[in-house]
Amino acid sequence: MKEYSRRDERIHLMQCFYQVFLFIENKEDYDATEILCLSYDVDEYDECPVYSQLVYALGLSHFDEIKMVLQKHLVNWTFDRLDNVAKGILFVAYTEGVYVKKAPRKVIINEAVALAKNFLKANDYKFINAVLDKAIPVE
């Protein structure tokens, strides 16, 4: 099995959640397992990196709860109005920070900001930083 850096896995996960949000937005059925497998270009779910399986499964199983928590921290926005890439970044980071806890809060937020700088418009990283800073509890 190919080895992936944690950052590479976060990119794959962001893309997977992006796909999920597109399917939901278009009111289409989807196979969550297939989305992850396609992202990693593998035939079986077990061939996907274990960390990605964990974050993805937890994010999907707590989907409504995560969406509700993130919504509480949006000022003058609704979660559904956000860019799907931003939603994906927020979902990955929140899931890691609240349910997985394999990296320090600061690292998770910094990684989300880095993704935002690479995949979103110029200053959107500030928005991602602010939301996650409020949403992910300090322990």
Spell out the blueprint of helices and strands.
Elements: H1 6-25, H2 32-40, H3 50-61, H4 63-72, H5 84-100, H6 105-119, H7 124-135
Helix pairs in contact: 1-2, 1-3, 1-5, 3-5, 4-5, 5-6, 5-7, 6-7
- Euclidean distance between termini CA atoms: 35 Å
Q: Helical element count?
A: 7
**Uncertain regions spanning at least 5 consecutive residues:** none
Biggest sheet features: none
> What's the Cα radius of gyration?
14 Å
What is the beta-strand fraction?
A: under 5%
What this model shows, in words?
- The structure is a single chain.
- The protein is mostly helical.
- Helix content is 68%, strand content 0%.
- The protein has helices spanning 6-25, 32-40, 50-61, 63-72, 84-100, 105-119, 124-135.
- Helix 1 packs parallel to helix 3 and helix 5 (84-100) runs antiparallel to helix 6 (105-119).
- It is globular, with a radius of gyration of 14 Å.
- The mean pLDDT is 96.
Please supply descriptive tags for the structure shown above.
139 residues; mainly alpha; 7 helices; 68% helix; 0% strand
What is this entry, summarized?
By secondary structure, this protein is mainly alpha-helical. It has helices spanning 6-25, 32-40, 50-61, 63-72, 84-100, 105-119, 124-135.
